[in-house]
Amino acid sequence: MEKRRLGQSNVQITPILMGTWQAGKVMWTGIEDADSIKTIRAAFEAGITTIDTAEVYGEGHSEQIVAQALSDVRDRVEYASKVFANHLRYDLVIEACDRSLKNLNTDYIDLYQIHWPSGSFNTEIVPIEETMSALNKLKDQGKIRAIGVSNFSREQLIEAAKYGRIDSLQPPYSLFWRYVEQDAMPYCIENNISILAYSPLAQGLLTGKFAPGHKFDPNDNRVKNKLFQGENFERALQAVEKLRPIATHHNCSLAQLALAWLIAQPQTNAIAGARYPEQAKDNAQAADVQLSSDELAEIDAIGRIVTDHLDESPVMWNW
To answer: Is residue 211 part of a domain?
Structure first.
């Protein structure tokens, strides 16, 4: 898989990244560590060398699982992790990074990101200047190679960039969730900031595996996802059916089509999670799907069947 430069940093990433929220187990059901390890390894062997995790995914458990899967090939992979909104004070950022380094069994993290803006989830308000000061210190020490932010608006991104180089933004972004296109994407394009799209398959909705009336386990975070509720869900199922002929034409799955469309957008890369090795391999193959400009436009229009009816909130869940 041909790598891309992360922002203006020296880090090279794969356009498809392996997402490991599920490996932390919390807010997911039916996840086994052995499966997670095999799946992360399968992603690497299929060409996905950039792995995204976070301290909050199972309180470090996801990071530990990543290390178990990949420590022997550390020199051939890129680790992206995140500090949570309750650890944005200077000293807490430093401590959180050290914990993540230990969990990941490494002496550096390729990309270290602020997971949510200060104040999210009723956390303490910390000036971005203070948090960025800690991140710049970690970068100077060689503990991290690049700084990123996640779930930041355009205005928050601009403010953070006053205090240091931001090389990536991680927003929710898929064919069915496109708020970032109107908000931060133009700024990212102008300033060479990589977009790392999470939930690129709309939490599985773009795989085509859901039928009308589907019910989730109450502990599954998708119960709160707006796309799985009411008319949004009905429109999404209609759109998926319109995508099927294009996927058939390319002899690819709906998921591969959705990922291929996404990584063809400006500055955009896709963080795709997987529970099982076969899914990880399938995700990797999306990088080989070549879409024409007409097909990209057609897929774009189909996605708007869903997105034209969504509210203006940037958050995908009713938390």
So the answer is: no
